[in-house]
Design goal:
The chain is an alpha/beta fold. The chain contains five helices and eight strands. It has a six-stranded mixed sheet with strand order 2-1-3-8-4-7, with helices on both faces. Strands 5-6 form a two-stranded antiparallel ribbon. Strand 1, helix 1 and strand 2 form a beta-alpha-beta unit. The longest helix is centred in the C-terminal third of the chain and has 17 residues. The radius of gyration is 14 Å and the shape is globular. The two termini are 16 Å apart.
Length: 165
C-alpha cells in the first residue's frame, strides 16, 4: 500500500458492501467484509487492528430512511457512555459537499450493529493508544441511492481525502 494505511470495513449483504465492491479494483487499502454478527464483527475488526497498524479505519453501514446522502458519525454510545472519534468529520463533510454529495454530521450511530462496531473499534484504539483514526459512515439502502455510480465515485473521494490528510 502506498500513502496512508487504511482499513475499509463494510457489512456483507448491504449497500455498504456494494459500494466497497464498486471501488475495490481501484483500492489501495485493506478491505474487511463483516458477517453481520454483533460479536464476530468487532472481533474481526480488532484482529485486523492487532495484525497491522492503520492510520485510518473507515467503516460503512447502511441506514434506512436516508436517500442519496451520507451520514458521518461523530460518536458511539454504550448506555450513558460516549466515545468521540478523532477523525476530521467536518473536513470530510466539506470535501464531499464540494463534490456534489449531500452529507450530514450525525451523533447517532444507531443502536445495533453499526454502533456496536464503532464503539468497540473506538474503545480498542483508545485503550491501546493506537495512532489510528476511525470514522463510521452510514450510506442509504441500495433502493435509496438514485445514482449508484456517483456514490461509488464518492467512495473514491473519501479514500483520496484520507490519503491526503
Amino acid at each position: 500500500m502506498t500513502g496512508k494505511r487504511i482499513l475499509l470495513t463494510a457489512f456483507c449483504g448491504t449497500s455498504a458492501e456494494l459500494l466497497v465492491k464498486g471501488v475495490e479494483p481501484d483500492l489501495k487499502c485493506k478491505v474487511l467484509y463483516l458477517p453481520n454478527d454483533k460479536v464476530r464483527d468487532s472481533e474481526l475488526l480488532i484482529e485486523a487492528l492487532q495484525q497491522e497498524q492503520f492510520d485510518y479505519v473507515i467503516s460503512l453501514g447502511q441506514r434506512p430512511n436516508i436517500k442519496d446522502k451520507i451520514h458521518i458519525e461523530t460518536l458511539a454510545r454504550k448506555g450513558e457512555d460516549v466515545l468521540i472519534t478523532a477523525f476530521e468529520c467536518e473536513r470530510l463533510k466539506g470535501c464531499l459537499e464540494q463534490n456534489g454529495l449531500s452529507v450530514k454530521i450525525s451523533d447517532n450511530a444507531g443502536t445495533s450493529y453499526c454502533n456496536e462496531l464503532y464503539w468497540n473499534g473506538l474503545r480498542y484504539i483508545l485503550e491501546k493508544k493506537l495512532d489510528t483514526r476511525m470514522v463510521f459512515l452510514h450510506v442509504p439502502f441500495e433502493k435509496n441511492i438514485s445514482n449508484l455510480k456517483h456514490f461509488v465515485e464518492e467512495m473514491k473521494v473519501i479514500l483520496n481525502f484520507v490519503n491526503k490528510s
